[in-house]
Specification:
3-stranded antiparallel β-sheet; 65 residues; alpha+beta; 2 helices; 3 strands
Length: 65
């Protein structure tokens, strides 16, 4: 497996996260959208599990490319 340089990881591991107004961290309710900066791939999430599934899937793919 080829390791990426720190410069390549700068964007390959960057994400933009937008939370909807209905998000209520105190009650554990997270709603929003997450986008991978390098690929522009995005996903809406309705829980932290949804959010982490997307992040895990993208980072796993990036690490194997």
């Amino acid at each position: 497996m080829k390791h990426k340089s720190a410069n390549e990881w700068k964007y390959q591991s960057a994400f933009v996260i937008q939370f909807r107004p209905e998000t209520d961290a105190a009650s554990g309710r997270y709603l929003g959208r997450v986008e991978h900066v390098a690929s522009y791939e995005s996903s809406h999430f309705e829980s932290l599990d949804d959010f982490l599934r997307f992040i895990t899937r993208v980072l796993t793919r990036v690490q194997t490319e």
